[in-house]
Write a structure and sequence with these properties.
- The chain has 271 residues and is mainly α.
- It is built from 15 helices and no strands.
- It has one domain.
- Helix content is 68%, strand content 0%.
- The protein is globular, with a radius of gyration of 20 Å.
- 27% of the residues are buried.
Length: 271
């Protein structure tokens, strides 16, 4: 993560970005055998190789990344959009970096194809094992009690939390605020690759995720935004306050979700 951040910021700021990520309220999950530690490692490695334009070297990393967690769809989407950006830059000659050559574009196109194919590995494996082409999505959604309907869970959760009027508006407000954040000066400094990843991953969550207590854990792949937070201000008071707040929220998160408390219907909230 530090090596990735170092490409976009000086040493001190990159370290603060790592500190923000390491102290994030759900970062305790990185110390237990969940998929997140491996996913973050592979994601940071893949993004670093892409920023360095080492697209061929990124291929095995992307395959492993897609097997570690279902992030293949947003990653392939990010690669596809990045290819379009690079292609347009070559045609217009408008990119501040040296325009990509045909060989580089071909490598990026190949990586994009691999990313898209890798996103289908687990669905294909589930289909092969069960004979049901929908086995993967059925497995992912069975605990919801209903089939996958894009976007709908966000509105259902919004209505549960804020009522029938504000609950419908809340997802739109959230999406708009996140989109605006991607254009703030601090986040713009992250560069096109990291911003595209954050946009695609959040778009993926809005499409498919059922918001619940695990949502906080699923935000960890947005870790590049930790560097954006560090770039927001060089004030020690600001940075110290963020770290302190995150550590306190770690305690809240651990006490809330890592202590068994059976629900009326059985089970417990997942971390």
């Amino acid at each position: 993560v530090y090596s990735l951040f170092r490409h976009k910021a000086p040493h001190g700021t990159a370290l603060w970005g790592v500190a923000f990520f390491s102290a994030f309220p759900v970062s305790a999950i990185l110390q237990v055998p969940y998929a997140e530690p491996l996913t973050v490692f592979l994601l940071a490695t893949a993004l670093l190789l892409i920023i360095r334009h080492r697209y061929v070297w990124a291929i095995p990393v992307v395959i492993l990344l897609c097997l570690s967690r279902p992030v293949g769809v947003p990653f392939a989407m990010m690669l596809g959009l990045l290819f379009v950006v690079r292609l347009v830059a070559r045609v217009r000659g408008s990119e501040p970096e040296p325009n990509p050559g045909l060989r580089e574009l071909a490598s990026l196109a190949g990586l994009t194809a691999v990313g898209g194919a890798s996103a289908l590995l687990w669905p294909a494996a589930a289909w092969l094992a069960t004979g049901d082409i929908e086995a993967y999505t059925k497995t992912e959604t069975v605990w919801r009690g209903h089939d996958l309907v894009l976007f709908k869970p966000w509105f259902d959760t919004g209505i549960d939390l804020f009522g029938p009027v504000l609950g419908i508006v809340a997802p739109f407000v959230f999406a708009a605020l996140f989109g605006l954040m991607l254009f703030t000066p601090a986040v713009v400094r992250l560069g096109v690759e990291l911003r595209l990843w954050c946009a695609c991953y959040m778009g993926y969550l809005l499409l498919f995720l059922h918001p619940q207590t695990s949502t906080f854990r699923m935000l960890l792949p947005l870790f590049p935004l930790a560097l954006g937070a560090a770039l927001l201000s060089r004030s020690r008071a600001y940075r110290g306050t963020v770290i302190t707040m995150f550590v306190l929220l770690q305690i809240v998160w651990i006490v809330w979700l890592w202590a068994w408390a059976q629900l009326p219907g059985g089970g417990d909230y997942p971390p």
